[in-house]
Specification:
The protein is of the alpha+beta class. It has helices at 3-10, 14-27, 49-55, 71-77, 129-143, 193-198, 215-236, 242-248, and strands at residues 31-34, 37-40, 62-68, 87-93, 111-120, 150-152, 156-159, 162-173, 179-188, 255-261, 264-273, 279-283, 286-290, 294-298. The protein has eight helices and 14 strands. The chain has a seven-stranded mixed beta sheet, with helices on both faces. 29% of the residues lie in helices and 31% in strands.
Length: 299
């Protein structure tokens, strides 16, 4: 688009527009100058709040932010004003993180960064909830036509051992003594040059897997399925989702090393998960149920 037309439409100077283009390109190389025009290297799949809001069901509010530090953190800071089913999505997330505290890298028009809030009577009622959300994420993708996605305890959605999505659930006390579970889901949708440069572990995205989805559609599917799963989980816990988890469990029957802390790990053969969301491991010392940790290696 012509520089002058853009500046007139946005009520900014040419210098301000150029400075903005520089900031955008620091996140993702998207814009270049072509004579009197500012052009995109590729078509950008931006989220549309009206489309998403009209597509979601059940109770709860929806908001889309251009930039936020973390969608989870933003909902946590709004803990006194939350309603079950509230959903927040951001185009750009500057301080997103994973369960282990590592950075969840994001770009513009590439990922879905979604956080939702659900109220539960106590922390005890949250046992296994992250696994149920994993099932919800896989189900939403399968409904959209994605095949062969798997679940990796405790919080990853993978394709051929490559990470496709991650889940982070945090809890915050409510004013009435109950707790809000803040459900964060990060899903890779499109290729991103900037993300590819900084990630040092196997990962993939839906575009790389051969799918051409609009992020609006995937976002709607995720929100609706997570709402359904959260409502079912509130009534019956993880038991309703164990079979589905088992069908998608990429670790079942494999020998793994589970890091429980920085100085302690357990090695054994995965025998599934229990109703509390714990990983069941068979080792030379017997059967062990592991509540928290991460998979350090798979043998």
């Amino acid at each position: 688009m012509n520089y002058q037309v853009l500046c007139s439409s946005l009520s900014i100077s040419v210098q301000e527009l150029q400075d903005t283009a520089v900031l955008v390109n620091e996140i993702e190389p998207l814009l270049f100058q072509d004579g009197e025009y500012l052009a995109l290297y590729k078509k950008l799949d931006l989220l549309d709040p009206k489309v998403i809001y009209e597509g979601i069901s059940q109770r709860g509010r929806f908001a889309l932010k251009d930039v936020t530090t973390s969608t989870n953190l933003e909902l946590i800071e709004e803990k006194d004003n939350l309603v079950t089913g509230d959903a927040l999505v951001a185009e750009i997330q500057t301080e997103g993180r994973s369960l282990r505290g590592t950075k969840w890298h994001t770009s513009i028009g590439s990922n879905i960064m979604l956080s939702m809030a659900f109220k539960f009577p106590s922390h005890q009622h949250l046992l296994g909830f992250s696994l149920a959300i994993g099932v919800a994420t896989v189900t939403a993708l399968e409904f959209a036509g994605v095949k062969d996605v798997k679940l990796k305890w405790p919080n990853d959605v993978v394709y051929q051992d490559k990470k496709l999505a991650g889940i982070l659930i945090e809890s915050v006390p409510s004013v009435d003594g109950s707790v809000f579970a803040i459900v964060g889901v990060g899903l890779n949708v499109h290729n991103s040059k900037s993300i590819a440069k900084v990630i040092d572990r196997p990962y993939t995205n839906l575009e790389e897997m051969g799918y051409d989805f609009k992020r609006n559609d995937i976002c709607i599917a995720l929100i609706n399925e997570i709402k359904y799963v959260a409502r079912t989980f509130a009534k019956s816990g993880l038991s309703s989702f164990i079979d589905n988890w088992m069908r998608h469990d990429i670790l079942m029957g494999r020998n793994v090393e589970v890091a429980i802390s920085s100085h302690r790990s357990v090695v054994g053969r995965v025998a599934g998960v229990n109703r509390q969301g714990e990983l069941i491991l068979d080792s030379n010392v017997g059967r062990t149920a592991i509540r928290s940790g991460h998979i350090a290696s798979i043998h």
